[in-house]
Amino acid sequence: MTALSSPLLPSDASAEPSEADLVALVGSRLCHDLISPLGAISNGVELLAMSGGAMSPEMQLIAESVSAANARVKFFRVAFGQANTEQRVSQNEIRSLLSEMSATGRTKFDWQVDGDQPRHLVKMAYLAILCMETALPFGGRLVITEHNGEWHLVAETRRTKPDDALWQALAGHAPADLRPAQVQFILLPREAETYGRHIDWQINETEARMSF
Is there a contact between 160 and 207 (Cβ–Cβ < 8 Å)? Predict the structure, then answer.
């Protein structure tokens, strides 16, 4: 029997993945493994619909739920996955994805950034969207634009409900009781620091703004 042993660690610690890299790798792995079964379920529902039988309310609910889950996983794959300055995301892919999310959620997304974009900037935009969603319990309309290299997100809603302590995490003051659904408030400022960007935000009773 061949004995197995742990490999020697490199003397240069910088060669090891950083904590942020490991988080991104885990995010990419989870989303990658979930997309295939969700796609298979979606295909199965389509085949059942094509078989000639009427779409029952139960099947319609399954179809809508799978579509929403599939769109969300694709969104998370960019928001929490690996990204660098070499990779790009097409405009059509972004708009198609946000359109799917708009169709099944309370918030309607309007992506007004022209052309394909570097994946790391799209990742920051997606993390910003996740942050802004926490302040929009009633949904609304969220517009994403870019001007002279600066990205802007503006959300209009019936009434905002921000958690002030949570939003202070964007300035490096993360609350001790941060929940998994709020991890974007930690990741976004780290991405901003990596690429030399500063995050600004403003929230009033009916509008939320963020730029980086």
Answer: yes
Q: What is the identity of the amino acid at 128?
A: A
User: Which residues are 150's β-sheet partners?
Assistant: 147
Q: Is 28 helix (H, G, I), strand (E, B) or coil?
A: helix
Residue type, 44: G
Residue 118 CB neighbours (<10 A)? 16
Q: What is the C-alpha separation between 15 and 81, in angstroms, rounded? A: 20
Contact indicator for 134, 162 with CB cutoff of 8 Å = yes
- Please tell me the distance from the alpha carbon of residue 121 to that of residue 144, in angstroms, as a whole number: 12
Q: Which of 27, 53, 82 is the last residue of a domain?
A: 82
Nearest one of 170, 195, 198 to 183, comparing CA atoms: 170
* 167 CB-near residues (< 8 Å, 6+ apart): 131, 135, 185, 201, 203
| pTM (predicted TM-score) | 0.81
CB 187 within 8 A of CB 124: no
Closest by CA position to 174, among listed 190, 155, 198: 190
197: exposed, middle or buried (C-beta count within 10 Å: 0-12, 13-18, 19+)?
Answer: middle
For residue range 115-153, list pLDDT tens digits in order: 999 999 999 999 999 999 999 999 999 999 999 999 999
Q: Is residue 7 part of a domain?
A: no
- Regarding whether 69 and 96 lie in a shared domain, the answer is no
Residue 180: both structure tokens together: 């998994």
Helix (H/G/I), strand (E/B), else coil: 120: helix
